[in-house]
Write a structure and sequence with these properties.
Shape: elongated
Mean pLDDT: 80
Number of helices: 7
Distance between the termini: 23 Å
Low-confidence stretches: none
Radius of gyration: 19 Å
Strand content: under 5%
Length: about 130
């Protein structure tokens, strides 16, 4: 897969790590892959709804989005946090996916000036004999 400059790579530690180390501590729940997939499906359905009813105003669509987020999925705080608040946000999630939208992506110029490799991941021959 082609990974563009400035993209982030994430190692999977599994959902259980987050449940044990974060959610049990009472902090904000971390969305799992299934939460992003659920939100992407909701967004996909909303975009299809918009196509089906082209005369729907932006204000009407925004009201429907608000009701879904604040009244229909109140028990699912993870999904609620991922759902967009605006029609522009809806279209952005539809185009890129909720996982990408949730990232704070920076351009390569910003990364060159401010970025740091905190995990010392770099292209080179490993210095570890067992690697």
């Amino acid at each position: 897969r082609n990974i563009s400059a400035g993209s982030e790579l994430f190692a999977s530690v599994g959902d259980a790590w987050f449940v044990h180390n974060i959610e049990e501590d009472g902090k904000t729940p971390v969305p799992f892959a299934s939460d992003y997939q659920y939100v992407d499906k909701i967004v996909e359905e909303m975009v299809e709804f918009r196509r089906k009813y082209p005369n729907l105003s932006e204000a009407q669509l925004a009201d429907i989005m608000y009701r879904i987020k604040k009244e229909m999925i109140t028990a699912d705080k993870k999904a609620q946090s991922l759902l967009p608040d605006s029609v522009d946000g809806l279209l952005d999630v539809a185009a890129r996916g909720s996982a990408r939208v949730a990232l704070d992506e920076r351009d390569t110029d910003w990364l060159k000036q401010h970025g740091k490799c905190l995990d010392n991941i770099r292209p080179a021959i490993s210095t570890l004999p067992q690697a």
